[in-house]
Amino acid sequence: MICPGRNSWYGRRGLVLLALLCGCGVEGRRPAASEPGPGAERGRPVAEERLVHRIPAEITDVTGVVFSPDGGHVALIARSEGGQRVVHDGRPDLLCEEVGGLTFDPSGSRILYKATRAGKQSVVVSGKREEVYDAIRGNPVFAADGATVLVTAKTSGQWFVRMGDRSAGPYEEAGEPICSPRSGKIAYAARMDGKWYVIQGEAKSGGHNFIPGDFIVFDGKGEGVAWVGWEGANRFVVHRGQRGESFSTAGRPAVSADGSVAAYRAQEKEDSRWVLVVGSRKSRRFDWIGEPQFVGSGNQVVCGASEGHQWFVLHADRELKVEGVERIGTPVASPDGSRLAYPASSGREGMEQWWMNVDGRKGPTFAHVGAGRFSSDGMAFCYEARGAKGWLVAGTDQMSNQYDEVWPPAFSKDDQSFSFGARKGRTLYWVTMPASR
Question: Which of 19, 58, 161, 313 lies 20 to 30 angstroms, CA to CA, from 85?
Answer without folding.
Answer: 161
